[in-house]
Amino acid sequence: MAPHQAPNRVFILLQYVFGALVLIAAVEYFKYKTRISYEWFHCTPQYEELFSRPEGAPLKLWAVGGQSCDKRGELKTIMKRITMDYDPNKEPVKFCVVEDTEVNSIHYPNENENKGLPGYVSFVGYERDSKIVEEACASYGATIFNL
Description:
Elements: H1 2-35, H2 38-41, E1 43-49, E2 59-65, H3 71-85, E3 93-99, E4 120-126, H4 130-138, E5 145-146
């Protein structure tokens, strides 16, 4: 009986391997197809230097995106960029986050590639740029946070 069961087990093993490969291929195909319209699924950070400096400059930072990029997604993207781009172990980081209260929570209709106004804007820089960050934040009356 043992020789009769062996081909059956091999066939079942091949079915499982084939099924796993199909699932992996489906995930990779989805990733490939959505790469073109990445902004529809995620918020994309946008930067503007407050002034140019070779070793890094304080930034005005905001996020835009497609229909799933609401205010919550913007705030997550901004905080993620601050914590990834600025290392508080090298030098203390100062930042503030300013909310545009006139913008609704869900505010990207994505018509004619118009992303609308951002719901949050942040000013961020290292301690050496604290004066510039403080001035930018004070113009909006925002609280300054330190990392």
